[in-house]
Every structure is written in structure tokens, then in C-alpha cells.
């Protein structure tokens, strides 16, 4: 572990993550409460000023949501989760991030229905073709509008973590032009891609160092 810290200290941009990781380890080691396997998803730091500004736990009486597919509405199970709102300083919300833990024996079905929902939205909407790729242990699906001139949601990205049976969905939001970080579609795409890259690095680092355990 110490050798890992020494390697990361070479890169100054990783220092906030190292501090956060060390703090988390100390808190986890001294806590007698039940570990929260989703907590770290709510605690990443970003190098460009993007910040987590609100974190809400899934209400105890909410245990499912629905998605639209070509064969009708489908139920998605949730036994735990968070809503995480992210923004740049002095701007409106940029990202509404949902973290959801599927019910036992339901993850494979939940994943199938969400992918079917993406395929349905891709066929029905004016968004770009469905994006699919794998990175850092996650299977990722995304849809993007090709303009920032309309729509409250510009992009939707869902990240599946099969070994954790966890589903993350990021809604990247449009904003008032006077209260947003980007002023062109190209600037938006840069911020979107940097968020996805930085967030995946953060949660992959946590997973590989057993923070989820």
C-alpha cells in the first residue's frame, strides 16, 4: 500500500484522492458500524473544480423504479442507493448521479431492462447513436444530444458494475447559459468526457484497494 502511495504522489493531480483514501481507511478502521459499500461513490474529488454539492440516501420506502422499453414499462429493483448532485462553483447543477444497488437475484434482469430502455430511447429520440464501451471494470452505455440549444438533459450514461451488482446513472444537465461552465457543444463534450474519465479513475482506484469491501 505504501508503495502505491509513493507512485501516486508523483502525480500532483492525484493528491486529493490519496488524502481522501487515507481518511476513508482511518474512518473505516475505527468504525464499529456496518460498512457502507456504496459510500465511496459519493466522495470522489475532481481536479477541475467540479464538486459534489448534495448527497441524499435512497428513502427506505423506495425499492424500485420503472424504465420504458419497446415491450412496455419494466421495474428496476433497488435495495440501497444515493442521489448525488454535482456542480462547478457559481453554476447550476451539471450532473444528477444515481447510484443503485440491485436486489439479490435481480441484477441481471435489471441490467437487461436498462439496456433495453437505452435501445428504445435511441430508436425513438433525436439523440446520437447508442454509445457502448467497457472501462475500468464497468460496462458503459450512453446517449447524447447533439446540441446544447434544447433539452434539460444533454446526455445519459449508465455504468454497470457486475461484480458489485451496482448500477450508476449520470444525467448530464443543460443549464441557463449565464450559469453554466460551457458555452459551446464542444466545451460541453470536453467536460462530459473529463467527468467520466476522472470519476471512473476514482471509483476504480477505490475498488482495487478494497474500499468497497
Summarize the structure.
The chain has helices at residues 2-8, 15-30, 107-124, 185-208; strands spanning 51-57, 64-69, 72-77, 80-87, 93-101, 131-135, 138-144, 153-161, 166-173.
Would you give an account of this structure?
- A hairpin with a 2-residue loop joins β2 and β3.
- Residues 5-12 and 18-32 have low confidence and may be disordered.
- This protein is an alpha+beta fold.
- It has 4 helices and 9 strands, in the order ααβββββαββββα.
Keyphrases for this structure?
single chain, 213 residues, alpha+beta, seven-stranded antiparallel β-sheet, two-stranded antiparallel ribbon, 31% strand
- Name the structural class: alpha+beta
Largest sheet: 7 strands, antiparallel
Number of domains: 1
Give a count of the beta strands, DSSP E runs of length 2 or more. Answer: 9
> What is the overall pLDDT average?
86
Strand content: 25-35%
Uncertain ranges: 5-12, 18-32
**Major sheet strand order:** 1-4-5-9-8-7-6
Radius of gyration over C-alpha positions, nearest whole angstrom: 18 Å
End-to-end C-alpha gap: 16 Å
Write the H/E string, N to C: HHEEEEEHEEEEH
Q: Which word captures the global form?
A: globular
- Tell me roughly what share of residues is in helical segments: 25-40%
- Tell me which oligomeric state these chains represent: single chain
| Total of DSSP H or I helical runs spanning 4+ residues | 4
Amino acid at each position: 500500500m505504501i508503495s502505491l502511495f509513493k507512485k501516486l504522489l508523483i502525480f500532483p493531480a492525484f493528491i486529493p484522492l490519496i488524502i481522501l483514501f487515507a481518511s476513508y481507511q482511518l474512518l473505516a478502521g475505527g468504525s464499529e458500524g456496518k460498512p457502507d459499500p456504496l459510500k465511496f461513490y459519493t466522495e470522489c474529488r475532481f481536479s477541475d473544480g467540479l464538486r459534489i454539492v448534495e448527497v441524499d440516501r435512497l428513502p427506505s420506502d423506495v425499492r424500485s423504479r420503472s424504465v420504458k422499453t419497446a415491450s412496455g414499462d419494466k421495474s428496476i429493483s433497488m435495495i440501497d442507493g444515493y442521489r448525488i448532485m454535482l456542480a462547478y462553483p457559481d453554476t447550476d447543477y451539471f450532473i444528477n448521479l444515481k447510484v443503485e444497488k440491485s436486489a439479490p437475484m435481480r441484477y441481471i434482469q435489471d441490467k437487461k431492462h436498462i439496456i433495453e430502455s437505452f435501445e428504445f430511447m435511441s430508436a425513438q429520440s433525436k439523440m446520437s447513436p447508442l454509445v457502448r464501451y467497457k472501462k475500468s471494470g464497468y460496462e458503459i452505455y450512453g446517449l447524447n444530444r447533439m446540441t446544447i440549444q434544447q433539452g434539460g438533459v444533454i446526455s445519459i450514461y449508465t455504468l454497470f458494475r457486475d461484480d458489485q451488482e451496482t448500477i450508476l446513472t449520470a444525467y448530464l444537465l443543460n443549464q441557463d447559459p449565464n450559469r453554466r461552465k460551457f458555452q459551446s457543444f464542444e466545451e460541453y463534450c470536453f467536460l462530459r468526457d473529463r467527468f467520466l474519465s476522472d470519476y471512473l479513475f476514482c471509483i476504480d482506484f477505490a475498488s482495487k484497494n478494497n474500499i468497497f469491501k
